[in-house]
Structures are given as C-alpha cells and as structure tokens.
Design brief:
There is one protein chain. The chain is mainly α. About 70% of the residues lie in helices and about 0% in strands. The chain is built from twelve helices and two strands; from the N terminus they run αααααααααααββα. It has a two-stranded antiparallel sheet. Strand 1 and strand 2 form a beta hairpin. Helix 3 runs parallel beside helix 7, helix 3 packs antiparallel against helix 8 and helix 6 crosses helix 7.
Length: about 290
C-alpha cells in the first residue's frame, strides 16, 4: 500500500463555467424543444389515447345531439360541424397541459435540477418547454383536423392554414398556462388534480359544446372572463366563414358579444397572444424561485 502524505497540499481543480450568451440561450431553447418532440414521438400510445376523448365528443355526443335537435332550427346545422371547432380546441388543450406536466416528472426524477444549474437563462428553459409543448399539441390538432370532411367541414386550403395558425397560438397559450402551474407543484398527482379542477371548467365554459347566445347573465359573465372562450370562437368563426349555414344556423355561430358589440376576430387573437405572454412571464418568475 502506498502511504498518504497528509501534509501535502490539496490540489484544487478550477472549474470554468462558460459565460451566458444569447447563443447559449437559443441553443437551450432548441434542446428543450427537441426533447419534447422526441418524447412525444416515442410515446405512440399517448398519441392514440389523446385523440380518444375528442373523438367521443365529436362522433358520440355529436350524433346524439343531432338526433335530439332534428326537426328544430338547430337541425338545419350539423351538430357535429358545430362541435368540431370546440373538439379541435379540446385536443390541443389536454395535450398541451400534459406536455407542460412533464416538468413535474423532471422535478421528481431530478432532471429539472440539471437544467436549472445549466449556464443558461431560466427563461430559455420555459420558452423551450412552451414551444415544444405547443408543437406537440398542434400536431394532435392536425390529426383531428384531417377528419374534417367526416363532419361536413370542407378541405379549403386557406381555411386549413388559418386554423393551423390559430391552433398554434392557442397551444402556446395553454402550454404556458400549464407550465405556470407546474412550476410550483411538487408531485404529478397534485398536478393532475389541479389541471382537472381548472381545465374542465374552462372547457365547458368556453362555448365549445353550446352556443353563446341567450345564456343566463351569470353564465355569460363566466364565459366572457374565460380566455378559452375566445380561442374556441376564433376557430369556429374561421371554419364557418367557409360554410353556408343559412339564416337559421347563423344564430349558433354568432360569436362572442360584449353587450351588443361583436368581439372582432383580431381582438380575439390579441387576447390569446397577450394571455400567453403574461402566463409565460409568470412561469419565468416562478422558475426563478424554484
């Protein structure tokens, strides 16, 4: 055995940490985004199960309501066609939230700590996670959008491009909302419970399953303060701009009104963008405290 000389000086190894630059932050965004894409691509079961609930709403609930409203003014508009924009938003909604929930998994297994000590801005991690989750959610929306012809929605190229762009904005807003929640939650079970408490009321109050006209005053107030209402209405008005529903059906796609004023599409886009930016900002602040 070799004796250890306790009087010898201790060798100190210097560790050099590269300085933060905009290139390192941009690289971090790309790495986090790519990680989300790889995780989603390898989880094919998740792709299939994420579509089951929207398909049930669209074809089971839609078919049931069609038989209920047949012979009325609502029967002049295909109920499945009316539900289609809301179901598109539903597909994006839950996929985006569950993508954001991977932050909680990363925290439980210690991977989040590895990212937080990296020499990059924490805002870059948040942005990468939001963009990655939004990309995955938009892809889920595209899979459902491919079924548009089965519910009477035309495959108009302009309409499709507009809807895809709107779904991307909606996915960014919802993923930012999920990241904002996940940033301070410690366990995945608590995250799932929180999202169920928040997401389901937001979806049912968005007008995805019923027209927004002639509602009670209390329900009208709740729908107006729900940001998801403007997301669903944006997609619905875009789709029905390319569908002739006639005078009777027009009342079911009349849009969101503040009093007697119809909220224009451009304002709905601004509301979605502003809400997304605000939630990203809050998520960044939450990460700085993590």
């Amino acid at each position: 055995m070799t004796a250890i000389d306790e009087t010898s000086p201790i060798q100190v190894v210097a560790v050099s940490v590269p300085p933060r630059t905009w290139r390192s932050d941009w690289r971090a965004i790309k790495v986090v985004w790519r990680r989300e894409i790889i995780r989603f691509r390898r989880d094919r079961l998740r792709m299939i199960t994420s579509l089951m609930q929207p398909l049930l709403f669209l074809f089971v609930l839609g078919t049931g309501l069609s038989s209920l409203f047949s012979g009325t003014d609502a029967g002049e508009i295909n109920v499945r066609t009316f539900l289609f924009p809301g179901v598109l938003t539903l597909a994006v909604l839950f996929t985006a939230v569950f993508s954001a929930g991977s932050i909680v998994w990363d925290r439980e297994f210690g991977f989040l700590r590895e990212m937080l000590v990296a020499p990059v801005g924490r805002w870059a991690i948040v942005v990468g996670k939001v963009v990655g989750g939004a990309t995955v959610a938009t892809f889920q929306g595209l899979l459902l959008l491919a079924l548009a012809g089965l519910v009477g929605v035309p495959y108009n190229p302009i309409m499709m491009l507009l809807v895809v762009a709107e779904l991307m904005l909606i996915a960014l807003m919802i993923t930012a909302f999920g990241v904002m929640i996940a940033a301070r939650i410690k366990t995945f079970q608590a995250f799932m419970a929180m999202t169920q408490v928040l997401m389901l009321p937001m979806f049912f109050l968005s007008g995805a399953l019923f027209p927004l006209n002639n509602l009670p005053a209390w329900l009208t107030i709740l729908t107006h303060i729900n940001p998801l209402t403007y997301a669903v209405d944006l997609v619905r008005r875009t789709i029905f701009a390319f569908i002739d529903v006639g005078p009777a059906g027009q009342q079911f796609v009349s849009g969101v009104t503040w009093g007697d004023w119809l909220v224009p599409i451009w304002l709905e886009v601004i509301i979605i963008v502003v809400m997304g930016l605000v939630m990203i900002r809050i998520a960044v602040l939450q990460f700085r405290k993590a």
